[in-house]
Amino acid sequence: MSTYAGQAAENVTLPSSLDEAVAALAAMPSAVPVAGGTDLMAAVNSGLLRPAALVGLGRISEIRGWQYADGAALLGAGLTHARMGRPDFAALIPALAAAARSAGPPQIRNAGTLGGNIVTAAPTGDALPVLAALEASVILAGPEGDRELPVSHLLTGMDPLRPGELLAFVRIPLLHAPQTFLKATGRTGPGRATASVALVVDPARRQVRCSVGAVAPVPLRPLEAEQWVAGLIDWDGERTLAPEACTAFGEYVAAACIPDQPGVELPPAAVQLRRTVATLSRRALGRALA
After folding, report:
1. Which Pfam family, any one of them, does this sequence belong to (predicted)?
2. pLDDT in tens, 271-281
3. 20 to 30 A from 253, CA-CA: which of 91, 129, 179, 277?
């Protein structure tokens, strides 16, 4: 019998390829895939989860790096936050690298993975708003072959993982576009966001894409605020905005993500959270346009 995170697991399988991992999950439908295990260990040790079997993904080299494919970066789900935070990766996808560098203390960054951040789908997952703003997609490997879907479909449960499937890769368009990630932390845990904002200024599509994390179960896209501020930008010129416009954008985003309730006064915590989102959004836009 093997042990994991201080708890007994009857079966631990360590495949060396994606095909072997999919086969192991098909043979043991109740098995739980595990890579870095940062979230799984917390669930096991707190008594929330008692996996009867584990499929370890740490030996699958094909999901621990990245490659280029058709104008996009194909990121392995096993990429750690520490690896994504390095300068060579930051030159590729700056906002995701910034999110990875902020994902808690070194022991978390060294173990935690991109795929784990997505599959766990914790509201405070730092990679999630970045992936939403970049309009990333995920590639799922399963017994019936691979399939690709927008990351938002997976996060919202619109198209969840099917039995025997696991997250293999994340496809992110490579943009020649300014992108930023900022977050505010509180007392909820080391490096854990109370609010986060990812923002992309995309001149090719003349779009501003913003995603707000940690304030709702899934990242929020304030689409009307995006369209409003994109209409203020001189896309054929210097692409600058007055400070007042950035401030107005921040307030627009915050009000969209933490709306007023008719006849109900916002509680102080919600008012403070709205201020935080407004500040992060304003700063993110200002940095992207700088």
Report:
1. FAD_binding_5
2. 999 999 999 99
3. 91
